[in-house]
């Protein structure tokens, strides 16, 4: 089957227990734009918030499901253990250290990994994040920061960088990533006493890498608030996604088949260590039901949920997203 290479990260979806505080942190502290306030289409009683660049270009979205009673995350293996966010240059990390001091954000010292400067930090729920410098990067283009952000453009977050997986069995995961998903193994580096293996796809670069560390000594992660639910990878269009669905079926990899998400089309499957992967199309995007100027200000519902708006809104705690 003549499949095109995956294009890199599409989005990362995580869990929060507090949509209001989550909105405050990701828009006011990190300066990302809320491009869509909607609901989890598999459980419309919970918010699904999308933070991204100016218009939610594919490869820039960090999303959150709100589960108010979500418990504490017990970190461990077989997890998406760090989500990185791209910033323009090494000096940007100095800016962000000062900002984190101002807002009392927990962070580590700047370090070098895989030839790039990185700054690891956590949000108010312990979500594991890192800022990665694009100063020496080439490959998949970055997004376009929102001009109305409180962060200067020269330091603003521009999209998703490498996603780190922690697994108990590297061989099983790497075989799926290379033999099925078409990634290339390109190198290694040491981190926290373990060796990280780097894989890339398509044009490569920070927006198209998966970093995997094997930790058979750790217990399996128990997810909760501050954990990552799944990572999605970019497929060009619906036609290509349907080819992937057939390809996975032929490879006898259990998967969801084609799923309509309105803002994009999706397909889900789990790699051998149980981490949930999604393939998602680059379009249609987030401007089909809201104009660019007011993205994220109202509760957006796909057309197939619109007749349920009154009952859906009744289950949600009001969340004011009109003011930064």
Automatic annotation (TrEMBL):
It holds the Pfam family Glyoxalase. The keyword Oxidoreductase applies. Residues 8-134, 159-282 form the VOC domain. Keywords: Dioxygenase, Oxidoreductase. One of its GO terms (molecular function) is dioxygenase activity. PROSITE patterns: VOC. The keyword Oxidoreductase applies. CDD domains: PcpA_C_like (cd08347). SUPFAM superfamilies: Glyoxalase/Bleomycin resistance protein/Dihydroxybiphenyl dioxygenase. This is Ring-cleaving dioxygenase.
């Amino acid at each position: 089957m003549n499949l095109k290479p995956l294009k890199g990260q599409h989005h990362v979806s995580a869990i929060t227990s507090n949509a209001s505080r989550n909105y405050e942190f990701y828009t006011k502290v990190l300066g990302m734009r809320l491009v869509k306030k909607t609901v989890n289409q598999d459980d419309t009683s919970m918010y699904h918030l999308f933070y991204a660049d100016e218009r939610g270009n594919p490869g820039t979205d960090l999303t959150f499901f709100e589960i108010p009673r979500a418990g504490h995350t017990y970190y461990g293996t077989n997890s998406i253990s760090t989500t990185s966010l791209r910033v323009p240059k090494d000096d940007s990390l100095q800016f962000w250290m000062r900002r984190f001091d101002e807002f009392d954000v927990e962070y580590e010292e700047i370090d070098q990994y895989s030839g790039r400067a990185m700054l690891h930090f956590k949000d108010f729920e312990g979500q594991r994040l890192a800022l990665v410098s694009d100063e020496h990067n080439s490959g998949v283009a970055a997004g376009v920061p929102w001009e109305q952000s409180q962060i200067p453009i020269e330091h603003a977050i521009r999209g998703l960088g490498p996603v780190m997986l922690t697994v108990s069995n590297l061989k099983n995961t790497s075989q799926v990533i290379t033999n099925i998903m078409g990634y290339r193994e390109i190198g290694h580096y040491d981190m926290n006493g373990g060796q990280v293996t780097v894989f890339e796809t398509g044009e490569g670069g920070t927006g198209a890498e998966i970093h995997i560390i094997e930790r058979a000594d750790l217990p399996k992660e128990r997810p909760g608030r501050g954990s990552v639910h799944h990572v999605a990878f970019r497929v060009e269009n619906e036609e290509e996604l349907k080819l992937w669905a057939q390809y996975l079926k032929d490879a006898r990899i259990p998967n969801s088949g084609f799923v309509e998400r309105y803002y994009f089309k999706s397909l889900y499957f789990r790699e051998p260590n149980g981490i949930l992967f999604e393939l998602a199309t680059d379009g249609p995007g987030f401007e089909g039901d809201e104009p660019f100027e007011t993205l994220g200000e109202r509760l957006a519902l796909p057309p197939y949920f619109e007749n349920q708006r009154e009952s859906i809104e009744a289950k949600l705690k009001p969340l004011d997203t009109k003011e930064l």
